[in-house]
């Protein structure tokens, strides 16, 4: 748990990005790893590097992406390497440097990357059905029985956020607080917990008077794990629907590879297709990140214009990172 300003945390996160960037390709500084890494003869990198951060304290993130890696390797003939990043800023800066080719983002961090000049385009996002309009919400949570009953009551309180570049753990909560007349930097004591689970559990334990986390972390994930019991927390605010987290690819890769990766994520990384291709015996056996009931579906950049509007409301320093 860390009590810091969003500016100092963002700086620390960018510094951490250097570590990810150096480790992602495992090569010396003399090698040309920018915009696609050390290349094969056709301009494609020898190894496709995929990076993501956990939404909770989990050591199984790499296992969640194992099937994704397998399909990409089979389809492209390229090796893949997975990097478990510490925060979204690390993924942003590693993609900016060309050290990570495929990044799994939150909506806010994707917009931050794209709008700050990182050459990325969205491939797909997770959904529970092929025709679903994917989305989720940010919840403001307090201990059960707390006298805090609305965002207006957050003034003067210690409030848990997730990360300065977290969509549902900072950006949308900041917008909600501002609309309630609360300055999220000066009218509360902000605590950046580092994960949605950590934020919720800090509220439960009393380390924070209130906090924010995405909806199913509070209502499903931590309850199923036994870390929360139903009724431990009260939800006192819900955000508008937020577009689901995208996976983005470097657009500086060879166009035929970008097109191939788009086809893989949009048409082959879903449970029915994986069963048909023989990767799983049943849909339930197909392990995908975030336990998506269907898998990946296509997504376009304009889906994230709502995030850009919230950036205009909050004027968050992270939006301009």
How would you describe the overall organization of this protein?
- This protein is α/β, with parallel strands linked by helices and 321 residues long.
- It folds into 2 domains: 6-133 and 245-320, 3-Layer(aba) Sandwich (D-Maltodextrin-Binding Protein, domain 2); 135-242, D-Maltodextrin-Binding Protein, domain 2.
- It has helices at residues 6-25, 61-64, 66-76, 88-96, 107-115, 167-179, 196-205, 215-225, 255-268, 271-276, 305-314, and strands at residues 47-52, 79-84, 102-104, 120-127, 135-136, 138-143, 158-161, 189-192, 210-214, 233-238, 242-243, 246-250, 295-298.
- The protein has a 6-stranded mixed β-sheet with strand order 2-1-3-12-4-13, sandwiched between helices.
- The longest helix is centred in the N-terminal third of the chain and has 20 residues, at 6-25.
- Bin the helical content: 25-40%
Strand order of the largest sheet: 2-1-3-12-4-13
Q: What's the number of structural domains? A: 2
What's the CATH class of the largest domain, please?
A: Alpha Beta
The number of strands is 13
Distance between the termini: 23 Å
- Tell me what portion of residues adopts beta-strand conformation: 15-25%
Name of the CATH architecture of the largest domain: 3-Layer(aba) Sandwich
Structural class by sheet pairing and helices = alpha/beta
Q: Could you list the spans in which at least 5 consecutive residues all have pLDDT below 50?
A: 1-41
């Amino acid at each position: 748990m860390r009590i810091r300003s969003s500016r100092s945390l963002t700086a620390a996160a960018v510094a951490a990005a250097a570590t990810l960037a150096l480790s992602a390709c495992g090569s010396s500084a003399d090698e040309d790893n920018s915009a696609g890494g050390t290349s094969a003869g056709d301009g494609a990198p020898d190894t496709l590097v995929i990076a993501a951060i956990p939404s909770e304290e989990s050591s199984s993130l790499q296992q969640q992406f194992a099937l994704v890696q397998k399909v990409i390797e089979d389809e492209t003939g390229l090796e893949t390497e997975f990097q478990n990043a510490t925060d979204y800023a690390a993924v942003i800066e590693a993609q900016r440097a060309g050290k990570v080719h495929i990044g799994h983002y939150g909506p806010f961090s994707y917009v931050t990357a794209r709008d700050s000049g990182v050459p990325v385009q969205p491939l797909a996002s997770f959904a529970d059905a092929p025709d679903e309009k994917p989305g989720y919400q940010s919840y403001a949570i307090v201990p059960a029985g707390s006298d805090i009953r609305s965002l207006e009551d957050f003034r003067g309180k210690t409030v848990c956020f997730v990360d300065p570049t977290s969509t549902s753990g900072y950006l949308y909560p900041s917008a909600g607080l501002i609309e309630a007349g609360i300055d999220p930097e000066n009218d509360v004591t902000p605590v950046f917990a580092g994960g949605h689970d950590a934020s919720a559990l800090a509220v439960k334990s009393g380390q924070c008077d209130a906090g924010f986390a995405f909806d199913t972390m509070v209502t499903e994930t931590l309850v199923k794990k036994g870390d929360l019991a139903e009724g431990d927390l009260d939800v006192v605010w819900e955000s508008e629907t937020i577009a689901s987290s995208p996976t983005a690819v470097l657009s500086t890769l060879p166009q035929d590879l970008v097109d191939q990766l788009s086809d893989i994520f949009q048409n082959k990384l879903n449970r029915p297709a994986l069963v048909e291709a023989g990767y799983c015996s049943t849909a339930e056996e197909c392990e995908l990140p975030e336990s998506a009931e269907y898998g990946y579906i296509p997504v376009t950049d304009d889906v994230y214009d709502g995030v850009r509007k919230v950036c205009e409301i909050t004027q968050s320093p992270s939006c301009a990172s």
